[in-house]
């Protein structure tokens, strides 16, 4: 039985048979305030290439009342089962299908999600359809290459607003609370959208070249309206319109552009055509650092880029998901970095220190895969929205731009859009366009970079004479073995890189770049760099300067010694970020002991001006101490780090981003009575630090740590929730309750997530976040066996998003031991999980295996 899965072969067969012309979808959401189910009526007009053919249409629904094909009523019981409606005896040429069903609201963030705001007790709805969840709302052929037009008619409660892909009807056009939308252009099912409820909105326009006017809208719940900084969001959006339309040479392809900040969203955002949904945590209700605004801006630009990459031109099947995600990621970062009015010209620094480390981690897991992944079915793609598809793909595109030149790259993109507008493509379509504009044969490049898995390591090999003049300079490239269980073989690749020479300016104390050479590294073990011979050896030699390629970079011994002493002294932010990232990668690989990584961070972080890098280092140090430190030394390391966070907190400029970041870092590991008393004092106001505003979110940060250490009880959590009776407050309270260091608290949290299926997605995520506390390993130990006993049943009975939260979030990652590996291996051998669950558990196992190696390396230091 296929269940809700769909194989690539099935999709290909259906695409050969069918051409889908139009959908008319009529939804009665008038009972949304009460919940339950709603009536869904779908009329589909499509053509069959054959007479008397057979296929199926997808639908996930509690009940189907009517199926009418070409005027004939079908026996529902005979044709609807296993989330499919069988369609037999199709006419060659035109066919019409009408399906009447009851569909269900969800609280999982899939399909039509329903949320009730505790502030106003009003329901708020939105759809989330990627990958295969439009079929939870209306009957459809759920695959990206069967594009069609979509015309929605929605009956909503009085006073509510309905937003979709097409322009919103005016009040005069809405009769009896029925909203009738114009048909969309030809698009895929997964980017259709409906957002319904008493949303607050702000409107403006984008005015482009040749009189172009695009209506813009921003929506959020009324309870967040006071925090909505619409002008800043519009500013970033307009910059994206300017930059993308110029680079793509293709006008924005839809009639309007709305951005809707919606509750309990599983991802960062979703590129529904003309109606982008974004997690409403991006409406900041408390002070955040500039790094948070930068991340939000990248998300806004990423989704806007999707209007071209993904919505205008869509991959034929999910193995080319990178055509959507890698391009949207690359172009969003490039827009931030190169738009003349951008507030974040250092965007590639952020990318190198955050997203790219995600890619490096993913590429060293047993599930590593080529950027162009092998996607056999929907189960495969559901777990493939990962660091390779997004961050490695974007990094490789940056490499391609360096290889062919930015002008040639975007000319190829322009030709691609013109040729394939409102159609579907595969890898060869894009490469063909780029080959034509660049004059380069990209077949070998594609094979090496897009169609093979794994990561390379680049090391300099430098020889000098007695006077310090370079007599030989080579770059050694390594292709480490792929992790056990990974498919494929390691490969050496061609790299376009820059090599930077940096020397310490004794007067100013800064590491300054004195020379830069850009060159091609062959797909070989050694590449000579004769242009650097004869030059004086600098203090630091940095391979992959400017981060042009995707590779793990190592420093030679002399450079490493200088960087260790002066990492914070690089004048530019990007070389600092590259060195920080290299040190972090060495720590994860067991080449640098955790205690030495901590010492390096403590020696250089005070000079780090980039707040995004500072916050990345905070996260990485915490992770290293929790997982990679020798357990016998971990307490010493945590004490040293926590003391340092407090020193930096007290020394930071009052009211600065650094002060806020250090406050959060301190709260994450505060442990002594004195430290916890300070946290409690900051919370109740008896202690103050000049400039530190202990606002709503920071209060919860402090309280959650106090709860996790037993310093705050249920009464204090309830009191804080009373102060913040919002959806965010409810999530924080759930985290705090699950974090308490008692067997009873852990049992209650576990039961609410694993033994019950009632929690909404966002609350479940919050409970899991509280349950897993790194200093509660003894309390968590009994749950390892419970995890393996329960996880397959959870996977088989819950929706994908809910099950994935549990499978990843509750895996015993903190129990770094051979026993955990053995238990995982026994489960993998006996439980017969499907490929998606096997992948997630295997990835988690790999994390424990890596942590064991790193702990052993730290113990030897």
What would you say about this model in short?
43% of the residues lie in helices and 20% in strands.
- Oligomeric nature of the chains: single chain
Q: Tell me about the biggest sheet?
A: 7 strands, mixed
Per DSSP, the total helix count is 28
Average pLDDT across residues?
96
What is the tally of beta strands?
A: 28
Beginning-to-end CA distance, first to last residue: 55 Å
**Helix content class:** 40-55%
Shape: globular
Structural class: alpha+beta
The strands making up the biggest β-sheet line up spatially as 5-4-8-2-1-11-13
Stretches where pLDDT is under 50 for at least 5 consecutive residues are: none
Strand fraction: 15-25%
Please give a structural write-up:
- This protein is an alpha+beta fold and 861 residues long.
- The protein has 28 helices and 28 strands.
- Strands 5-4-8-2-1-11-13 form a 7-stranded mixed sheet. A 5-stranded mixed sheet has the order 15-16-17-19-18, with helices on one face. A 4-stranded antiparallel sheet has the order 9-10-14-12, with no helix packed on it.
- Helix 3 (230-248) crosses helix 4 (290-306), helix 4 (290-306) packs across helix 5 (322-338) and helix 15 (611-628) runs parallel beside helix 17 (657-669).
- The chain is globular and about 90 Å long.
């Amino acid at each position: 039985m296929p269940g809700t899965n769909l194989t690539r072969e099935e999709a290909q067969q259906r695409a050969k048979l069918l051409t889908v012309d139009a959908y008319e979808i009529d939804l009665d959401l008038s009972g949304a305030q009460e919940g339950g189910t709603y009536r869904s009526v779908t009329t589909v007009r499509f053509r069959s290439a054959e007479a008397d053919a057979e296929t199926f249409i997808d639908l996930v629904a509690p009940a189907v009342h009517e199926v009418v094909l070409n005027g004939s009523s079908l026996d529902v019981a005979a044709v609807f089962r296993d989330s499919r409606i069988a369609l037999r005896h199709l006419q060659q040429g035109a066919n019409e299908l009408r399906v009447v069903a009851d569909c269900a609201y969800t609280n999982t963030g899939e399909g039509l999600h329903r949320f009730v705001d505790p502030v106003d007790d009003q329901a708020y709805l939105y759809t989330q359809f990627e990958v295969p969840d439009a079929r939870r709302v209306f009957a459809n052929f759920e695959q990206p290459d069967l594009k069609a037009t979509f015309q929605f008619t929605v009956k909503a409660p009085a006073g509510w607003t309905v937003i979709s892909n097409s322009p919103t009807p005016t009040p005069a056009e809405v009769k009896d609370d029925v909203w009738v939308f114009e048909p969309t252009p030809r698009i895929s099912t997964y980017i259709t959208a409906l957002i319904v409820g008493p949303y607050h909105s702000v409107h403006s326009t984008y005015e482009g070249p040749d009189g172009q006017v695009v209506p813009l809208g921003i929506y959020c719940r009324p309870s967040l309206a006071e925090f909505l900084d619409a002008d800043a969001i519009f500013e970033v959006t307009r910059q994206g319109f300017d930059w993308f339309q110029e680079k793509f040479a293709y006008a924005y392809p839809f009639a309007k552009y709305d951005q809707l900040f919606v509750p309990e969203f599983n991802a960062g955002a979703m590129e529904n055509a003309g109606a982008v949904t974004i997690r409403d945590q991006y409406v900041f209700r408390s002070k955040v650092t500039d790094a948070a605004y930068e991340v939000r801006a990248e998300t806004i630009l990423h989704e806007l880029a999707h209007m071209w990459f993904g919505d205008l031109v869509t991959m034929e099947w999910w193995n080319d998901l990178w055509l959507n995600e890698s391009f949207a990621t690359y172009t969003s970062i490039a827009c931030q970095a190169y738009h003349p009015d951008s507030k974040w010209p250092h965007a590639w620094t952020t990318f190198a220190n955050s997203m790219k480390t995600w890619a490096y981690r993913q590429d060293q897991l047993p599930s590593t895969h080529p950027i162009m992944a092998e996607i056999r079915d929907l189960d495969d793609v559901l777990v493939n929205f990962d660091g390779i598809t997004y961050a490695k793909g974007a990094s490789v595109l940056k490499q391609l731009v360096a290889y062919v030149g930015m002008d040639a790259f975007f000319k190829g993109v322009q030709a691609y859009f013109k040729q394939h507008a409102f159609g579907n493509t595969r890898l060869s379509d894009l490469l063909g366009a780029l080959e034509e504009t660049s004059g380069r044969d990209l077949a070998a490049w594609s094979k090496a970079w897009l169609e093979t898995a794994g990561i390379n390591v680049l090391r300099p090999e430098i020889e000098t004479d007695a006077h310090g003049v370079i007599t030989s300079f080579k770059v050694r490239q390594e292709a480490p073995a792929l992790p056990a269980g990974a498919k494929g073989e390691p490969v050496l690749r061609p790299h376009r890189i820059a090599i930077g020479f940096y020397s310490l300016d004794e007067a100013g104390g800064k590491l300054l770049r004195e020379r830069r050479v850009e060159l091609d590294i062959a797909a070989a073990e050694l590449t000579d760099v004769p242009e650097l011979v004869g030059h004086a050896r600098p203090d630091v030699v940095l391979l992959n300067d400017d981060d042009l390629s995707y590779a793990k970079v190592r420093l030679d011994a002399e450079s490493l010694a200088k960087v260790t002493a002066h990492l914070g002294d690089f004048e530019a932010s990007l070389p600092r970020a590259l060195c920080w990232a290299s040190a972090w990668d060495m720590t994860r690989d067991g080449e640098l002991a955790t205690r030495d990584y901590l010492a390096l961070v403590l020696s250089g972080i005070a000079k780090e001006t980039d707040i995004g890098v500072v916050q990345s280092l905070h996260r990485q140090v915490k992770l290293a101490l929790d997982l990679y430190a020798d357990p016998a030394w971990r307490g010493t390391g945590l004490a040293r780090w926590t003391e340092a966070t407090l020193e930096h907190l007290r020394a930071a400029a009052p009211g600065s981003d650094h002060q806020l970041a250090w406050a959060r870092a301190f709260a994450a590991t505060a442990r002594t009575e004195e430290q916890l008393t300070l946290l409690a004092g900051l919370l109740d106001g008896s202690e103050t630090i000049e400039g530190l505003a202990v606002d709503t979110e920071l209060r919860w940060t402090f309280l959650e740590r106090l709860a996790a250490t037993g310093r705050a009880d249920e009464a204090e959590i309830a009191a804080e929730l009373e102060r913040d009776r919002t959806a965010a407050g409810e999530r924080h309270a759930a985290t705090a309750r699950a974090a308490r260091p008692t067997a009873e608290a852990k049992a209650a949290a576990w039961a609410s997530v694993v033994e019950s299926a009632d929690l909404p997605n966002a609350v479940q995520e919050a409970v899991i976040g509280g349950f897993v506390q790194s200093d509660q390993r003894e309390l968590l130990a009994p749950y390892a066996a419970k995890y393996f006993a329960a996880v397959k049943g959870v996977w088989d009975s819950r929706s994908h998003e809910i099950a994935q939260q549990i499978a990843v979030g509750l895996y015993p990652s903190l129990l770094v031991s051979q026993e955990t590996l053995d238990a995982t291996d026994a489960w993998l051998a006996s439980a017969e999980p499907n490929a998606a669950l096997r992948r997630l558990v295997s990835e988690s196992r790999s994390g424990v295996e890596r942590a064991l190696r790193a702990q052993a390396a730290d113990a030897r230091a």
